[in-house]
């Protein structure tokens, strides 16, 4: 226990400038976010629907580049839809019985997971973003 305490204090003394800089950044961001907090808005916080709360002022814009048309698009809740291509496949990584055949689709209940975890789903994406209208072509 004493050795752990000594290691922690050594780390703090070695990186004191980084730690104080991070705490100053946190204090600055807390003061700016207090100006835009939901408590300063009229009414209750609404997460969905037309009256949902959005931060005003210093919010960061998220811009993404479409891999098909090479056009930059700002990501907005009511903006043009952007999609990711994904590869979905059956996975037996967590399986306790990998030789078990696939379930009969007529009697299979997708909401019920068998205890031997015979198979699951694996989804992978390359991370390339596309406009939905270009992807549908």
Task: Describe it.
The chain is of the alpha+beta class. It is built from 3 helices and 4 strands, in the order ααββββα. The chain has a two-stranded antiparallel ribbon with strand order 1-2. Strand 1 (63-65) and strand 2 (72-74) form a beta hairpin. One of its GO terms (biological process) is ubiquitin-dependent protein catabolic process via the N-end rule pathway. It catalyses: S-ubiquitinyl-[E2 ubiquitin-conjugating enzyme]-L-cysteine + [acceptor protein]-L-lysine = [E2 ubiquitin-conjugating enzyme]-L-cysteine + N(6)-ubiquitinyl-[acceptor protein]-L-lysine. Pathway: Protein modification; protein ubiquitination. This is E3 ubiquitin-protein ligase. Belongs to the E3 ubiquitin-protein ligase UBR1-like family.
Overall residue-averaged pLDDT value: 74
**Could you tell me the strand content as a percent range?**
15-25%
Oligomer: single chain
H/E topology pattern: HHEEEEH
Total strands: 4
N- to C-terminal distance: 63 Å
SS-based structural class? Answer: alpha+beta
The total of helices stands at 3
Radius of gyration: 25 Å
Instruction: Give the helix proportion (percent range).
Output: 25-40%
What general form does the structure show?
A: flat
Family: Belongs to the E3 ubiquitin-protein ligase UBR1-like family.
Protein name: E3 ubiquitin-protein ligase
GO molecular function: ubiquitin protein ligase activity; zinc ion binding
GO cellular component, one term: cytoplasm
